[in-house]
């Protein structure tokens, strides 16, 4: 075994939580080691999450656009997908970005160990690498950024071919005839979109009576309608209660949550996308006295301290919004705190994007939230059908919805269903970060014709004075 080396900071997990934490800590003068078991750094997000899914979504969006160019007067013959080519595109994006992360760590003189890390003590981590095990010492802190794994169902053993998690659904070798998606969250809707565009019939089974739970219910309903028009089939308010194989197909028994009869859904591929659970199993948390909460997350205080002195946790493993950029903000804030600063995460302005087409993006409070909390608010809406650029782009679906405080006019939440909503939301994020009122955006010049004009008009609508509706 190798001799023990010591670092100020030892980070377990090189995903979007761990690696920005390492870079920021190094910028602030700390010596840092990152331990990750994957070949490519970047965690779930880069290897089997955000990045490969977006590469497939981008490729298939182009396919779908190319099929519909005639409405623009552009004639393209024989448009078709070459699945191998699409997968090569995905692989290249993932590899290049992963190599980029490795480069960034080298540039910041962060030591990188490939292997499994487990806690031996509050200041000692064992790394099990391919060529043996060794220990690293943490003189200041150990950071757990081990992320999450796909949750599964006991009845449906994952083989990543016929019954798949999102990881398998990113690498199918042929488009399924019928893809059954269990769970109507963003992962199911995004990967369902990919395979629908590549020719699969897609059925989404969801226990709740709405898709993308957690988003503003008006926006969820609007997205539901658009996806249905695209050919998605939805089986909402239903639970999968059993399954069996029938030849090469999987037959799912589904039961309504309310009254009604059981039914069956037959599919050649089933995607289980029911959420993610924290990855804590092999960290030996108990050796330092850390007990995960009821749902498996590591409890931390506002400074990301766990119950063990000198051990911190960030990212998916501590729960909250399980998003890459939330993990990144936490990693940076923690690094700043460990270097003596006052790093802080503003959880009220973390955007969330569902990368269907149109995209659904949101930041801040939902109308459902505000109602439940008894907050007096005003709503401004503006449809993309009334936006000139959306018209030129033939994007008629979607709307911008702005929620503002009835008394102060402060923007409390913005929800956008529409073309490039994931980019458009950032104007709202930025102004909310500065505590803007709807009136502030309403009085800000927006270039014409552009999609962001729809946000301005929705802000004008808060005061019932839209110009273009
Ligand atoms: P992770 O990214 O999970 O990284 C943890 C790393 O630690 C992993 O590499 C893991 O292998 C390693 N590890 C764990 N335990 C150990 C150990 N004991 N020793 C060594 N290494 C260990 N989020 C977004 O914001 N936008 C998106 O578009 C988006 N799309 C997604 C699509 C899919 C299909 C999925 C599955 C997720 C998506 N997410 C998206 C969520 C995002 O991937 C996570 O929120 C994010 O990766 C969390 O970062 P993290 O650093 O906490 O953990």
Mean pLDDT: 97
- Pick out the low-confidence regions: none
The total count of helices amounts to: 13
Helix and strand composition category: alpha/beta
Radius of gyration: 24 Å
Shape: globular
**Amino- and carboxy-terminal Cα gap:** 71 Å
Strand composition percent: 25-35%
| Helix share, percent | 25-40%
What is the number of strand segments? Answer: 22
Largest sheet: 7 strands, mixed
Cofactors, ions, other ligands: flavin-adenine dinucleotide
Binding site for NAD(+): 183-190, 206, 275
Keywords: Disulfide bond, FAD, Flavoprotein, NAD, Nucleotide-binding, Oxidoreductase, Redox-active center
Domain Pyridine nucleotide-disulphide oxidoreductase dimerisation: 350-458
Cofactor: FAD
What does this structure look like?
Helices cover 30% and strands 27% of the residues. The longest helix is centred in the first third of the chain and has 25 residues, at 83-107. A hairpin with a 4-residue loop joins strand 18 and strand 19 (359-364). The chain is globular, with a radius of gyration of 24 Å. Helix 1 (18-27) runs parallel beside helix 8 (324-338) and helix 3 runs antiparallel to helix 4. The chain starts with a strand and ends in a 7-residue tail after the last helix. The strands form five sheets. Strands 1, 2, 3, 4, 5, 6 and 17 form a seven-stranded mixed β-sheet that branches. The protein has helices at 18-27, 43-48, 50-67, 83-107, 166-169, 186-197, 217-229, 324-338, 367-373, 388-392, 421-433, 438-442, 453-462; strands at residues 5-12, 32-36, 111-114, 116-121, 124-129, 132-144, 148-150, 163-164, 178-182, 201-206, 233-236, 238-246, 249-256, 263-267, 269-272, 276-278, 311-313, 352-354, 359-364, 377-383, 399-405, 411-418. The protein is an alpha/beta fold and 469 residues long. The structure holds flavin-adenine dinucleotide. The site of flavin-adenine dinucleotide has 36 residues, from strand 2, helix 2, helix 3, strand 4 and helix 8. Flavin-adenine dinucleotide (FAD) is lined by residues 12-18, 35-38, 43-45, 49-50, 53, 116-117, 145-148, 166, 187, 279, 282-283, 315-317, 322-325, 327.
């Amino acid at each position: 075994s190798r001799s023990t080396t010591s670092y100020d900071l030892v980070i377990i997990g090189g995903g979007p939580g761990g690696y920005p934490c390492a870079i920021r800590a190094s910028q602030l003068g700390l010596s840092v080691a990152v331990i990750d078991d994957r070949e490519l750094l970047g965690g779930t997000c880069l290897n089997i999450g955000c990045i490969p899914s977006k590469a497939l979504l981008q490729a298939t969006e182009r396919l779908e656009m190319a099929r519909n160019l005639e409405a623009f007067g552009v004639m393209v013959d024989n448009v078709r997908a070459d699945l191998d080519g699409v997968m090569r595109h995905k692989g290249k994006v993932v590899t290049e970005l992963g190599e980029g992360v490795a480069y960034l760590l080298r540039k910041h003189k962060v030591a990188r160990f490939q292997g499994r890390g487990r806690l031996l003590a509050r200041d000692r981590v064992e790394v099990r690498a391919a060529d043996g095990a060794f220990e690293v010492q943490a003189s200041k802190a150990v950071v757990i950024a081990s992320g999450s794994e796909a949750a599964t169902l006991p009845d449906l053993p994952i083989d990543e071919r016929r019954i798949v998690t999102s990881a398998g659904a990113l690498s199918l070798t042929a488009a399924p005839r019928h893809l059954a998606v269990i769970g109507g969250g963003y992962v199911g809707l995004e990967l369902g979109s990919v395979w629908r565009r590549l020719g699969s019939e897609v059925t989404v089974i969801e226990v709740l009576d709405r898709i993308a739970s957690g988003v503003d219910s008006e926006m969820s309903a609007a997205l539901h309608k658009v996806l249905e028009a695209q050919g998605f089939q939805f089986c909402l308010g239903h639970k999968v209660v059993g399954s069996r194989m029938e030849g090469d197909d999987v037959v799912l028994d589904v039961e309504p949550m309310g009254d009604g009869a059981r039914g069956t859904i037959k599919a050649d591929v089933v995607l289980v996308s029911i959420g993610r659970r924290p990855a804590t199993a092999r960290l030996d948390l108990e050796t330092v006295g850390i007990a995960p909460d009821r749902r498996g997350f590591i409890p931390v205080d506002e400074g990301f301290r766990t119950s063990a002195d000198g051990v911190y946790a960030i990212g998916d493993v501590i729960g909250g919004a399980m998003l890459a950029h939330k993990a990144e903000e936490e990693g940076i804030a923690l690094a700043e705190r460990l270097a003596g600063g006052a790093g802080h995460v503003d959880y009220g302005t973390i955007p969330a994007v569902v990368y269907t087409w149109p995209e659904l993006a949101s930041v801040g409070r939902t109308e459902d939230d505000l109602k439940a909390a008894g907050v007096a608010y005003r709503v401004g809406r503006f449809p993309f059908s009334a936006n000139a650029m959306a018209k030129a782009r033939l994007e008629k679906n979607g709307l911008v919805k702005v929620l503002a405080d009835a008394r102060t006019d402060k923007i409390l939440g913005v929800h956008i269903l529409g073309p490039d909503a994931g980019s458009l939301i950032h104007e709202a994020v930025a102004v909310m970060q500065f505590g803007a009122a709807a009136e502030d955006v309403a009085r800000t010049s927006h270039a014409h014709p552009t999609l962001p004009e729809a946000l301005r008009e929705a802000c004008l609508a808060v005061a019932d004075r839209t110009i273009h509706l």
